[in-house]
Amino acid sequence: MDTKDLTAWIREFAGLVAQHKDELTALDSAIGDGDHGVNMDRGLTAVVAALEAEPPDSPSALFKKVGMTLISKVGGASGPLYGTAFLRMAAAADSVLDGAGFAKVLRSGLDGVVARGKAQPGDKTMVDALGPAVDALDAALASGAGTKAALQAAADAAEQGREATIPLVARKGRASYLGERSAGHPDPGATSVTLLMQAAASTLGS
Ligand code: ADP
Ligand code: MG
Ligand code: MG
């Protein structure tokens, strides 16, 4: 996968977030302040505009632009968290990525989210979708799956991780202010991460 392929991934993610904006916002209304869909859509609309204005010439430049734009345009927790993920991905990306290279990049992104937000698995955050996705991607590639199938396994794991956040009590972010009342709802950030991985499965690999 080259810069063009990875740009298509980001554009597809932006499209899915725009399509699911109201759903993300409704989820955040239940356990947060009701802005996750609006936040992510604003940020990704700016990302797509920035990529069109000046197409990046390497995966690293692409991820850097995505990260910087999300940090500057998205208020709230998700901007710095997604932004840090993409900046770490930029630092880890070679000029062309195979499946294993993409898995390495994605794990760097996860490490960035954890370093920045200090969430543990089970805290009911985006980590609960991204962590299982990265693990499933590694496991599928190690068992000999092709990149496309491995990315589909990663997207499925993200979705399962998102479902698994429903009964959890939030221990990080705004939802944690609700205590026990945060249980019974999926985490909005885990939901947007699922869209990120679904976009990867549909646009990357062959
Ligand atoms: P805000 O909560 O500031 O309004 P958003 O609504 O855009 O920001 O994003 C909320 C999402 O951010 C949550 O659903 C959760 O997945 C994620 N989040 C919040 N705090 C953390 C954290 N410390 N680590 C990882 N993810 C977090
Ligand atoms: Mg919010
Ligand atoms: Mg907010």
From TrEMBL:
Query: Gene3D superfamilies this protein is in?
Result: 1.25.40.340
Q: Which InterPro entries match?
A: DhaK_L_YcgS, DhaL_dom, DhaL_dom_sf, Dihydroxyacetone_Kinase
Q: Where is the DhaL domain?
A: 4-202
GO MF annotation terms: kinase activity
Which UniProt key words apply to this protein?
Kinase, Transferase
- Gene encoding this polypeptide? dhaL
Top-rank taxon of the source lineage equals Bacteria
**Which protein are we looking at?**
Dihydroxyacetone kinase subunit L
